[in-house]
Amino acid sequence: ASTRGLRCSSVFAAAGRDGGGGGSGQRHGGGQTWKTTRAKTRRPRQPPSGRGARTAMLMDEVCLLSAPKEGTEVPKLIVFDLDDTIWYPELYMMCGAPWSRDELGRVTDAGGEELRIYPAARESLRLILTHGAFADTRVAVASRTTQGRWAREAMALLTVVGTTTLREAAGDLCEIFPGSKKQHFEKLRAKAGVAYHEILFFDNESGNVREVGQLGVTSVFCPGGMSQ
């Protein structure tokens, strides 16, 4: 059955694949073709399964937050994964620190490879930070990367709206460590003082989506990252 146009309760996003990828290191997102400097081995993506997960899935559609209609319930907390959800390449594919930002705002690793925010991720973050409907909504990050120091350093350089960095947008709601994402969300829920059903989550890994969905979090599967 087609899931085109799916909307789940209090969610204004659709999850899907925008094409590209594979072992060539080529990605398509937001109308751009992104190529990394080395061939990448991408981890396989499987659609979430299992009962009890609050999951919105659109396998061949965009994954982008959009402005809610008047009167629509808005999440109090919107959580993003990092690797291949907000940005690409994934950190394990890169040379890592030291990171640098040039006069055009491009962030590169020690080898000169650029870490890019997906255009749809940037637009979704801009909407949360500037649209009146999201005035009481907070941004958070939940990542299982083993490169936590690299992630925080990169977040402090990547700008999302004007001069506001991704690190500033998330503030203290930033949980980056290996392990079950249920642990990340337990910490985020306690810090933010919200209930699980008041949270919206974007991730490119089916296991994370399924696991977090079991908590009652509305979880969106983005196998191709945030895309338009």
TrEMBL record:
One of its GO terms (molecular function) is acid phosphatase activity. Residues 17-32 have a biased composition (Gly residues). It comes from the Eukaryota. InterPro entries: HAD-like_sf, HAD_sf, HAD_SF_ppase_IIIC, MDP_1_eu_arc. Residues 15-53 are annotated as: Disordered. NCBIfam families: HAD-SF-IIIC, MDP-1. PANTHER family: MAGNESIUM-DEPENDENT PHOSPHATASE 1 (PTHR17901:SF14), MAGNESIUM-DEPENDENT PHOSPHATASE 1 MDP1 (PTHR17901). This is Magnesium-dependent phosphatase-1. It comes from Mantoniella antarctica.
